[in-house]
Amino acid sequence: MKKKKPQDISLVLVGPAGMGVQTVEQVLVKVLQSAGYHIYATKEYMSRVRGGMNSTSLRVAGSPVRAPVDRIDLLIPLAAGAVSHVAKRLSSSTIILGEKALFEKEIEDGFRAIDIPFSKIATEIGSKIYSNIVAVGLLGALFHVEFQLLQDFIRKRFAGKDQKILDENGQALQAGYEQGARLAEQENVEFDLKPDPNVKKQMLVSGAEAVGLGAIAGGCNFIAAYPMSPSTGLLTFLAKHGRDFNILVEQAEDEIAGINMALGAWYAGGRAIASTSGGGFALMTEGLSLAGMIESPLVVHLAQRPGPATGLPTRTEQGDLDLALYAGHGEFPRVILAPGTLQQAFDLTGHAFDLADRFQIPVFVLTDQYFVDTYYNTDRFDASEDRVHHHFIESEEGYKRFALSDSGLSPRAIPGHGKGLVAADSDEHDEFGRITEDLDLRVKMVDKRLARTKFLVEEAIGPTLWPQESDSKHLVICWGSTLPIVQEALERIGRDDLGLLHFSQVFPLHPAAAQPIGKAQTRICLENNAGGQFARLLKTYADIEVDHTILKYSGAAFTVEEIVTRITEILD
């Protein structure tokens, strides 16, 4: 691999909740994509409605970018304290654009800071509230976006508002654009990136939206959830498009109700997803066991955040793998999927519904705050494939819902579809579903439920080796959302003897998973948790030991530079 020099601009907007940071972000990314730039955006925010300090990090490029970096090329601080909030990421090459009076006490000598009176310009137009639109205009000029494109987007965004508001937004945009042109001419601040015409054909979606689109493609027609960061994005996305795709959306009174409603939907022949985060899933574990006992299909979206207890409600961590793996009392099979890209989120979520339906088991889609709140432009998902295949039957008289079989699968019927009685009981039961305390039958039922594990292993999605077909001397192992970050880090390092193995299905493991790992002399497992949960899983279920772990559990995602440093230290 050759070393890859960054060909992008890292732009960071910082300000307290309620200051319009998200407005600048949402308008800017849409406009920049329309102008042909590749966009990557992620955010970190505090658990409060107003105040605190939030930041949005954007990477604007002429080629695809899909990972966070420490580097800040351009910083827009919107309030006092904003510069201090990201001080560790600043360098002598960082350009700070903003009202100097707000941050001049926070910067040291050597930093390039240019005074832009956002508030004054906005106030003269009509209100300080237009400061964020002034910033949009300024940034649009620095990235050589045509003013007409900006103007059309602003008019569309505020369509239906009072004419005075429309006019003043237009004036704020014009004033900001003129400020940007002045910076380019007098301060030599501008960004010369080559647009890519293919970007306009792509879509800009977040991790939460990709999971939602995958659920729709998988035939989801019911979601039950209690709002909980960071899983709420999936609930709101499916609620927004519920009428378009005939999806019933239920904001449950709590997570216990949510999972039981989802089970009820599957029992009635629906295809349901329960969405939550760690603390909410803790309440769902009894319902998960119920799914195991009644052999019900179930899809669970678990968006991880740091725990224990409330932890850091709006931060990220890969800390719930053990929870998904061992949740519930008793023993019953399950599958855990963990997408690393938006495309994988779409594909795997649709696949989760099929697996759940075919094997009558719970299937997890394991994401995290970083993943669901991150977005970038990507090729449009192919929804033409028919992913919806129902696996229930029409029952006959004398129907045995839990008929013993060598495969471990009993024919699944739904109430009202046929002449047979469809029983479901949380106690141990006989083949008809009637409560039993026959201990010999208990053994047969447990063996039946566990027998399908064999088929789940055969159906498992194998890990992805990168570069393909390589026998790397040194191998970095990762799972879930860290994939694009590790990929870019390895490109930066540029060693031909260094490879990557990514797991998008973390349980059960594919039988061939051990092959590339066994060939490597140095095995490094990278995870966003404190205990190396996936490294333990590899040891327990595949007898694979790693030589080194790179762990992060501060509540922040890995950055490219951080991984480059950690891997280089190990290899040196």
Write up this protein.
There is one protein chain. With 572 residues, the protein is of the alpha/beta class. The protein has four domains: 193 residues, 3-Layer(aba) Sandwich (Pyruvate-ferredoxin Oxidoreductase, domain 3); 175 residues, Thiamin diphosphate (ThDP)-binding fold, Pyr/PP domains (Rossmann fold, 3-Layer(aba) Sandwich), CATH 3.40.50.970; 66 residues, no CATH class; 108 residues, 3-Layer(aba) Sandwich (Rossmann fold). The strands form four sheets. An eight-stranded mixed β-sheet has the order 6-5-4-1-3-2-14-7. Strands 9-8-10-11-13-12-20 form a seven-stranded mixed β-sheet, sandwiched between helices. Helix 11 packs parallel to helix 12.
State the gist of this model.
By secondary structure, this protein is α/β, with parallel strands linked by helices. It is 38% helix and 21% strand. The longest helix has 25 residues, at 163-187.
- Residue share in β-strands: 15-25%
Number of helices: 21
Q: What is the mean pLDDT?
A: 94
Secondary structure category? alpha/beta
Report the CATH architecture of the largest domain.
3-Layer(aba) Sandwich
Biggest sheet character: 8 strands, mixed
> Count of DSSP E strands?
22
> Going across the major beta sheet, what is the strand order?
6-5-4-1-3-2-14-7
> In total, how many domains does the architecture comprise?
4
Molecular shape: globular
Cα gyration radius (Å):
26 Å
CATH class of the largest domain: Alpha Beta
- Give me the CATH superfamily of the largest domain: Pyruvate-ferredoxin oxidoreductase, PFOR, domain III
Unreliable residue runs: 1-6
Q: Ends: how far apart? A: 18 Å
Could you tell me the CATH topology label of the largest domain.
Answer: Pyruvate-ferredoxin Oxidoreductase, domain 3
Assign a percent range to the helix content.
25-40%
